Amino acid sequence: MEWLTLLGGYLFIFTARVVDMSLDVVRVLMLMRDKRLLAAMVGFVEVSVFILALNQVLAGGLTDPGKVIAYAGGFATGNYVGSIIENRLALGYLTLQLFPAPDRATRFIEIFRQAGFGVSSVCCQGRYGERNILFVLLKRRDLQRALSLLDEVDPGTFFSVSDARQIHGGIFPRKGK
């Protein structure tokens, strides 16, 4: 029966670390999105769980390698789970920059605007002459839809996606579109 108690302790340490590290990822995301109060509340829960897990690991000294393995495994798994949660939350905004072939720029502008996205076009000079760079500011949860539109017109178009830390104004698709 002692092994059951031992196993339960390992499971508690592992689970607490998964929760703690998942909350850590969410807290950092909140800080990056300038949601300080929410980040502080998540941080409070995170550190409370961390202390409980660490207390279990240190209880009786560091003579039990199973506790260390459970702690480290929970840490690693928590990072993975946290990244999945972060992807599901899809908070914030992104900038999609398209560098289309000159004959496709107008089609890209039309299709993105028909889908409700705001598109800005900037004329520039590329290696082989005049080009347009298209800027599409979008919600993170709309990225896959925007990339699908890109694939409809020309899947070979060069593009880049970057995080937009703060925005003001703009045109975004309505829900249900």
Automatic annotation (TrEMBL):
Q: Which organism's genome codes for this protein?
A: Desulfofundulus thermobenzoicus
**What protein am I looking at?**
UPF0316 protein GFC01_09110
Q: Which residues form the DUF2179 domain?
A: 117-169
> What are the DUF5698 domain coordinates in residue numbering?
26-82
Membrane topology is:
Multi-pass membrane protein
Q: Where in the cell is it found?
A: Cell membrane
Could you tell me which InterPro entries the record lists for this protein? Answer: DUF2179, DUF5698, UPF0316
Pfam families (UniProt xref): DUF2179 (PF10035), DUF5698 (PF18955)
Q: Which lineage is the organism of this entry classified under, starting from the top rank?
A: Bacteria, Bacillati, Bacillota, Clostridia, Eubacteriales
